[in-house]
Amino acid sequence: MLIETARLLLRPIEPDDLDELTALHTDPEVVRFIRPLNRSAARARIQLAEREWEERGYGLVAVLDRKDGKFLGRAGLKYWPEFDETELGWALRRDAWGHGYATEASRACLEWGLSEFDMPYLTAMIDADNVRSVRVAERLGLAPIRDDVLLGDPVVVYGTQRSAP
């Protein structure tokens, strides 16, 4: 699977992304609202993503700059069995913030997920104080549907329905 947008390439995350994923998930500003991952945890997350791709046909993607292949962050779809829902998620390096990459990558994942898989809707689980991610969700047309708890943390669950055929 490879998704190309105007400025980005999205492909399944792979073991060669370990250093970049670790750097992303150890930046204090990036992990204000998401879980930090040390190198060992990042390796385990990549392994989990590989299993999810095999089992579900979707998962975590590396977000790369089309011009030079630079790793900008990660996005993708994550099935949460405890909710029986698939979440659209995104996280970018701090130097990639403010350029619209999160919206561009997430819109591509959203459209791909809803068109290729039998999902009635997708969610995004966001800390209420994460203003940047709330704005991305709103730009994608997601709206708050409930408050919930994800991995022990309170979140606002945003959602969008599959369009009628």
Kindly list the characteristics that best describe this protein:
5-stranded antiparallel beta sheet, 3-stranded antiparallel beta sheet
Characterise this structure.
With 165 residues, the chain is an alpha+beta fold. The longest helix has 18 residues, at 39-56. Helix 1 (18-24) packs across helix 2. Helices cover 30% and strands 33% of the residues. The model has no long low-confidence stretch (mean pLDDT 95). It has helices at residues 18-24, 39-56, 101-116, 131-139; strands at 3-4, 8-12, 60-65, 71-80, 85-92, 121-126, 143-150, 153-161.
Compact summary:
This protein has helices at 18-24, 39-56, 101-116, 131-139, and strands spanning 3-4, 8-12, 60-65, 71-80, 85-92, 121-126, 143-150, 153-161. With 165 residues, it is α+β, with helices and mostly antiparallel strands. The protein starts with a strand and ends with a strand.
**Main structural class:** alpha+beta
The DSSP helix count reads 4
Kindly, what is the distance between the CA atoms of the first and last residues, rounded to a whole number of angstroms? 24 Å
Across the major sheet, the strand order is 1-2-3-4-5
Tally of DSSP β-strands:
8
Look at the structure and give the mean pLDDT.
95
The major pleated sheet works out as: 5 strands, antiparallel
Q: Helix fraction?
A: 25-40%
Shape: globular
Task: Give the percentage of residues in beta strands.
Answer: 25-35%
Question: What integer value in Å does the Rg equal?
Answer: 15 Å
| Element-by-element helix/strand order | EEHHEEEHEHEE
The low-confidence parts are none
